[in-house]
């Protein structure tokens, strides 16, 4: 009996507890809903809805003539909220939409697309990606007119999610100078150095979190629109850049060199017109622009004989020497303490004038003169580095500029042999851009200007920041010294180590450089070759430096390796620049067959159209991208299309050299030419089959 009573009591207690819990649950629900509802609704909102960043459109990078070097192109990922459209709209359009999607993407059947969208709608899925493939702007515009999609974001549920990609119209041209930037905002070149301007200001928009962790944008009045980035306008000239890269690559391949650099700069302004850097790929095949040796720290190296210009400046400025004074170089070997300085020529040069010593690049002569006149006061020699402006970096516009290195008298690494070796470009480090600045100053009658690459930061028609010519030193030496240095540099090309690039058409001034490579503390038989100078020597407009590291083969000196690249680039610039080569215009005028009309034989239709429109001359219509031959017909211009099959030799007769080079080199044809003016004849017959590695000879007149 007691057991039965105990069991009944326990059952009643359990029943009462269950009844209490059952009563408490609705009370708790009511309390949460009515008393704490706002609190929990707000928490749910923060979990499922979130303001997220909307990236700004990155600014463009332009060449000096307005050519586009880098831009951000919009691409789109197509997604859909299948629950947004009305039943009537969905039923009427789903078959056609599925058919269009299948035909466009070509990855699924129309039935598969219809099933995917219909199932998502039945399951009340608010977000599905229709295809991971990104589409362009034109395709996005076309898709927006498709069934269901044409109802827009709210009526049809279509979402064109913008994804921007960086695009370079000129592909790898100036790729390291233009540079890159990654997601962590680390990179190189203009993209990295001017990122604060280019990146713009990101906006914010409300997004809804969906099943699977994806986020869908939601319209909200508090969205903050992104501010697009500023555009960067450089000083680069795409034609000169192309010429520089082509000439450098050709020599690197011919000499199987490790790397090479070219910088072309305007003498008066300091505007850089081209920077080319090519390095052998890790595979050992081909060359790529992987590092900016012209500017960066890895390009900081012993300059070799191009530094002799500085040594001559100090000697002349101190009135220690005259150019016709004699110096005995003996048998080409000179002992300085425990080391022997040698000339490149076996047996030496004997007795030379100082002018001849510089032209022949005698190590013995230059080091002997510097040691004789500055050996007791090396600080005075080294002090000229500050006077000239070579002791510190230029604070160049690209990040990563190498810092010049020079030993200092009195420090523990200064030896009795330091001064003679520094005087010929050893035991010191300079970037190509620093060496070029010195030569540019001599060309500029002693005024050293700071090299610069970016001339403006703009947005639309508004200039945010502008950069111009900056003078580093008003005068690096006296007028008399500068004139003597100019004479010496011209003599190197006329009679000295660079006489192989002397040209009767225009004059070049410059200096060769050859430095033995220091590896594991020992100088080797591998060389760092260079040529720095300017042209035309009598009215300098451009300065240039060419460096080529570790060329193979015989005669691996600056005059044999780097100077020919300088000459090739200078030739093409001279041919393209009407300011330097005014005779070409005079020739065209003298050959003009019809005085009533301008004489234009051939060219690109768009450019010729612009000229004729300015002059008010009627011309028959054609497509702007076509190359045409021009025929004068009374007071009107007629032309015929100058068609060119990609597998045949094009007809470039009548074209200016600039256009001929563009057409031929873009087909992989190597070009040799002689004369000036327009293309008078070509060695390969137009329309004949184009063979690999073809070379064509052009006669201009």
From TrEMBL:
Task: Please give the Gene3D superfamilies that the UniProt record associates with this protein.
Answer: 3.30.10.20, 3.30.450.330, DD-peptidase/beta-lactamase superfamily, Penicillin-binding protein 2a (Domain 2)
Where does the CRAL-TRIO domain start and stop, copy by copy?
Answer: 426-609
One Pfam family this sequence matches:
PBP_dimer
Matches recorded under InterPro entries: Beta-lactam/transpept, Beta-lactam/transpept-like, CRAL-TRIO_dom, PASTA_dom, PBP_dimer, PBP_dimer_sf, PCN-bd_Tpept
The yes or no answer to whether the keyword Nucleotide-binding is present is: no
Quote the subcellular location field of this record.
Membrane
Q: What is this protein called?
A: Transpeptidase family protein
Q: Which organism is it from?
A: Algoriphagus limi
